[in-house]
Amino acid sequence: MSDRQAVAEQAAAAMWSRDGASQSLGMTLVSVGPGRAVLSMAVRPDMVNGHDIGHGGLTFALADSAFAFACNSYDRVTVAAKCEITFRAPTRLGDELIATAVERERGERRGTYDVTIARASDEQVVATF
Question: Treating both helix axes as pointing N-terminal to C-terminal, what angle do 3-17 and 56-71 enclose, rounded to 10 degrees?
Fold first, then answer.
C-alpha cells in the first residue's frame, strides 16, 4: 500500500468516526484513495417524497459526503465553497445509489471534484454534482 493510500484511508476512518450525518442516512463508505471516494446509500421509505420518488436533497447529501471524503483524503481539513447538482433521473424506494467522487484538479487552496451518482442495479446516472 502506498503512503498516499494509507493517508487517505486513515483520514477517512477518522472522519467517518465523527460523521453522524452520513451514518444516520445509512451511507456506507465503499472505498477511498487520494482524491477519490465511493459511497453508497439505499433509498429508504423515509427518503421518498410526496411524488413517490427519492427526495433530491438526500441524493445531494450522498454526493456531498462522497465529495467530502475525496477532498479530505490528503488529511487536510477541506470544505466546499460552492457546489451544484443536476438531477438526471428519479430515484425510487429501494434503489441502491452509488456516488463516485473524483478529483479533477487540486491547488494549494482550491480544488474541483466531479461526483456521479448512479443506481447500482442498472448503472443509470441519476445525478451529477
Answer: 140
Q: Which residues are CB-neighbours of 111 under 8 A, at least 6 positions away?
A: 71, 78, 103, 104, 105
- pLDDT 10s digits, 46-86: 999 999 999 999 999 999 999 999 999 998 888 888 899 99
Rg (CA), the chain: 14
Q: State how far the Cα of 83 lies from the Cα of 85, in Å rounded to an integer.
A: 7
Length of the chain in terms of residues written: 129
Scanning the structure block, which residue is given the C-alpha cell 421509505?
A: 45
- What is the distance of C-alpha 19 from the center of its chain? 13
Q: What 8-state DSSP symbol labels residue 48?
A: B
Q: Strand (E) positions, the chain?
A: 28-33, 36-42, 86-87, 96-106, 111-119, 125-128
Strand-pair category, 96-106 with 36-42: antiparallel
Q: Which residues pair with 101 in a beta bridge?
A: 37, 115
